[in-house]
Amino acid sequence: MRRKAAVAGQFYHDSPAKLSHQVQQYINHNLPKEHAIGILCPHAGLIYSGAVAGEVYSRISIPKTFILLGPNHTGLGAKVALMSEGEWEIPTGLFAIDERLGRRILSNTSLVSSDSQAHIFEHSLEVQLPFIASFSKDSKIVPLTVMSATLEECTSLGEAIAKAVRGADYPVVIVASSDMSHYVSDTVARKKDKMAIDRILALDPEGLFETVKKEHISMCGYLPATIMLFAAKSLGARGAKLIKYATSGDVSGDYDAVVGYAGIIVS
Q1: What pLDDT, on the 0 to 100 scale, is given for residue 22?
Q2: Degrees, nearest 5: CA angle 35-39-40
Q3: Which of 19, 267, 230 lies closest to 127, judged by CA?
Q4: Would you tell me the crossing angle of helices 46-59 and 16-24 to the nearest 10 degrees?
Q5: Cα 144–148–151 angle (5° rounding)?
Q6: Residue 190 contacts residue 248 (beta carbons within 8 Å)
Q7: pLDDT tens digits, residue range 23-41?
Q8: Which residues pair with 95 in a beta bridge?
Q9: Which residues contact 213 (CB under 8 A, 6 or more apart)?
Q10: What pTM value is reported for the model?
Q11: In this structure, what are the phi and psi dihedrals at residue 71, rounded to the nearest 5 degrees?
Q12: What is the CATH number of the domain that holds 66?
């Protein structure tokens, strides 16, 4: 199965030339690269979140495979859905699914279903691909969406992913795709987002999960971020750093109702 781009022309340009030019505005090929176990990247329209995502991808060593974890915005498909075979197409590249790594994840937990329906219209993972394509035409992907999960399920999913990564004899980076606060004032977004970011920087998945719930932080990908942190800790992560934070107000000039974007590297 080849999954066609669902949000080309909406979240990013739909012509190869225009998309390449758009992405080049946000990346720097000259930055020193570092090994990452996991990253947190936003998934809004590139005009708003591209500078944050581009800064993160510019700083990491590009692996053979990216495990892409994102929220399910559409409500379609399984609760935790892995597209286990086929290809994903965007204007600037074609990405093969790492079927072997995907099968390992499926065999490690009954919480994940092999399901392509959840991915057909979902944008949270697709918006990562233009950045990956700008650095590599050969990287594979393992696409996973999460509709709902308890803290215990996040723990189990993180360990299942870590176990699969440990069994791979090539580099893998786990991407948690998430925007931060949605449609609150810039002041509120920055205050609440810092609470969540601080838990990520502390490598505290339980704290992230509970803080988002307690403080009513509208971080759409907090479950993918929690799962990524559990996996990264299991894989030996020692620290995390905030690469860039911004809000949509920085672009639009509207600070009354913004969306927040954070870029973090876990290593």
Answers
A1: 98
A2: 160
A3: 19
A4: 70
A5: 100
A6: no
A7: 999 999 999 999 999 999 9
A8: 88
A9: none
A10: 0.98
A11: -75, 155
A12: 3.40.830.10
Beta strands 65-71 and 140-146, pairing class: parallel
In Å, what is the CA distance from 219 to each residue of 36, 228, 257?
22, 15, 15
Single-letter residue type at 218:
S
Judge contact between 122 and 144, C-beta under 8 A.
no
Mean of pLDDT values over 163-187: 98
Query: Average per-residue pLDDT in the chain?
Result: 98
Of the candidates 151, 140, 86, 90, the one whose C-alpha atom is nearest the C-alpha of residue 114 is: 86
Residues 6+ apart with CB under 8 A from 17: none
Tokens of 37: 């176990």
Residue 181 structure tokens:
């606060």
What's the per-residue H, E or C state across the chain? CEECCCCECCCECCCHHHHHHHHHCCCCCCCCCECCCEEEECCCCHHHHHHHHHHHHHHECCCCEEEEEEECCCCCCCCEEECCCCEEEECCEEEEECHHHHHHHHHHCCCCEECCHHHCCCCCCHHHHHHHHHHCCCCEEEEEEECCCCHHHHHHHHHHHHHHHHCCCCCEEEEEECCCCEEECHHHHHHHHHHHHHHHHCCCHHHHHHHHHHCCCCCCCHHHHHHHHHHHHHCCCCCEEEEEEEECHHHHCCCCCEEEEEEEEEC
Q: Which domain holds residue 220?
A: 2-266
Which amino acid appears at position 222 of this protein?
A: Y
Buried b (16+ CB within 10 A) or exposed e, 207-220: bbbebbeeeebbbb
User: For position 245, what pLDDT does the model report?
Assistant: 98
Which of these, 240, 158, 153, 156, lies nearest to 203 by C-alpha position?
240
Number of domains in the chain: 1
At 186, the amino acid letter reads D
